[in-house]
Recover the amino acids of this structure.
């Protein structure tokens, strides 16, 4: 049996920073912040079809969230936001 200072699996997971969050408000705010920071890259995505810039956006957003956002949810929300910008 391991001797650990953690009382639960949840506490251990938190200490290892492996728990992700699904918070639509936080996700939307972080996406909006990054898209506002890189308007030229947004234009490249929207009007030149450069899909590779989504990696830049994802990296910035994950860094700003300290890696706590769920990547699948983030990808979906980012794509939706970019599509809505084109309308």
């Amino acid at each position: 049996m391991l001797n650990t200072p953690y009382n639960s699996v949840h506490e251990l997971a938190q200490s290892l920073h492996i728990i992700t969050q699904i918070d639509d408000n936080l996700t939307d705010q972080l996406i909006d912040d990054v898209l506002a920071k890189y308007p030229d890259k947004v234009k490249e995505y929207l009007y030149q079809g450069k899909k590779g810039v989504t990696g830049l956006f994802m990296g910035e957003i994950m860094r700003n969230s300290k890696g706590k956002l769920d990547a699948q949810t983030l990808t979906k929300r980012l794509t939706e936001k970019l599509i809505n910008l084109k309308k």
Observations:
- The two ends are 58 Å apart (CA to CA).
- The CA atoms of residues 3 and 9 lie 13 Å apart.
- The mean pLDDT is 84.
